[in-house]
Specification:
Low-confidence stretches: none
Strand order of the largest sheet: 3-9-6-11-4-12
Number of helices: 4
CATH class: Mainly Beta
Order of helices and strands: EEHEHHEEEEHEEEEE
CATH architecture: Sandwich
Bound molecules: fe (ii) ion
Number of domains: 1
Strand content: 15-25%
CATH superfamily: q2cbj1_9rhob like domain
Amino acid sequence: MFYIGGAAKTVQEQSALIEKNLKPEMFWPTPTLTIQLAGVEELNRGLARIIKEKEKEILSKTRATPVAGVKMGLTAHWLEFNVLNWDYPEIAELRRMVLDGIREMFKLVGEDPDSPGMQIAGISCWANVLRYGEFLEVHHHDPSFVSAHYQVQTGYEVGKPPSKDEGGQTVYFRPGFLDRSMGGKAAGQTSPWDSDWKISVEPVEGKLFYFPSYVRHEVRPYLGTHERISIAMDIFVKKQEALMHFGGPRWFVPGKPQASRPSIKPR
Ligand SMILES: [Fe+2]
């Protein structure tokens, strides 16, 4: 029994007065987008050739910044170059694919890719060349808005699926997982290999994959025959108001003339 304004109401009468407004809203969802490209074998061969040529130049001329457990190799030079700034027809094609995909990813997260806030402030884009035994430790790409990677070459023998021993899978961890599993007594019993908390993905050539930059992931030790080559990128948008200067060799800014894009930053 309720007493409102001196008059008693039954629970049923009160219940009839209750209004309910639903407002669905995603705070930090984890949408991902896979764009599987077919007919890109020749493009990928070209990209692999370009990346391996550039690798020599970049390693000899620029400085390493250890990242994701990698102290040397192309990944560690990620701040010194931008793949999207390279002047090759294959790279122009990659730029088109990447920018198209970004628009689709923005729509997927409920944003209008043509709105002022979603204009791209800058893209950092580097290549990873992993050879036998190499791996990337668990890391994330925050503070960028969205990240992506494109698989140029799995490194496995051409035309053959990977064997279980060849490794090189990318493992994505559910947001919050690592915090919980390392959170002391209150964290409870969780195995790091609990399948509910990770998604392990085999590399597939021609796959362009977008994900929120805060998703932690790793690349398991690669044990295949050739090089495992991927291109990774971090996309920053205007609405983030990031206190960063999107100039210099690390950055690609859509619409900026090619001539003003430095190739690499010598040490
Ligand atoms: Fe990564």
